[in-house]
Amino acid sequence: MKTLYVTDLDGTLLNSNDRISQYSIQTINGLVAKGMQFTYATARSLVSASVVAKGLSTTIPVIAYNGAMIIHPDTGEVIASLSFTEEEAGYVSGILREHGGNPLVYAYVDGVERVSYVTGRINDGIRHYLDSRKGDKRFRPLADETCLYRGDIFYFTCIAGREELLPLYEIFVQDERFRTTLQQELYRPEYFLEIMPKKASKAEAIRRLKEIWHCDRVVSFGDAVNDIPMFEVSDECYAVANAVPELKARATGVIASNDEDGVARWLEAHSQIS
Q1: CA–CA gap between residue 114 and residue 99 (Å, rounded)
Q2: Tell me: the pLDDT tens digits for 126-153?
């Protein structure tokens, strides 16, 4: 039986310092060298994920933007992607304008991946997000909203307080055209409202990757509510000790925390290499 092992990054494989320990890197790389099929599924872009996952051996495609993209990490080749239709993007942008939403808009603009935002509307949460990714060439600061929603849009993120975002969440979560999540940022007070095409999820991307890579089963690891769909399509699923209660309730088991190398220690003890 060929098993695909998939882990979330933030809060799961990454420790509290947003790093992968040397123990985890060495352990996982050693298992990959022996034939373990291993990858990660993250809400991050490949650009952002590659920084925090530096040194980690990923020989198969990775899942980015919560499933909106499957990308080969070595070449940047997009294996599969999902975008909003023009009508869907127009509807989302209209609701955001009407309710004063302040989004980061992820799109391919003239064939180049960009993250667009209005400079005069940067709050503390957005500033922290931008500062933590200094030098990111995707960023496209704009003076106003005139060109904010340009391009082939595949992801919207709003960063603010929960009470500010909750009315928007309640609108989009009831719309079957979209996949919407609202969760608190790790180690920060702000919340992230994420709006994606309906089929964009870690679960759908894992199904596709499992098929492409001819795997028979999936074992996954996570910590947050956006990992629930991933757990639902896995044959086994493990929540790290620091995971939210909702995810632990759906897990096959609970393993050591992200600060205790829980994923790597489980893989070292239990992974099956075909």
Answers
A1: 24
A2: 999 999 888 889 999 999 999 999 999 9
Contacts of 249 (CB under 8 A, 6+ apart): none
Expressed in angstroms, the distance from the first to the final Cα of the chain is: 7
CATH code of the region 3-81+200-270 = 3.40.50.1000
Q: What is the CATH number of domain 86-197?
A: 3.30.1240.10
User: Rounded to an integer, what distance in angstroms lies between the CA atom of residue 147 and that of residue 186?
Assistant: 31
The radius of gyration computed from the CA coordinates of the chain, to the nearest angstrom, equals 18
pLDDT tens digits, one per residue of 215-238: 999 999 999 988 998 999 999 999
Task: State the Cα–Cα distance between residues 58 and 74, nearest whole angstrom.
Answer: 8
Sequence spans of domains, the chain: 3-81+200-270, 86-197
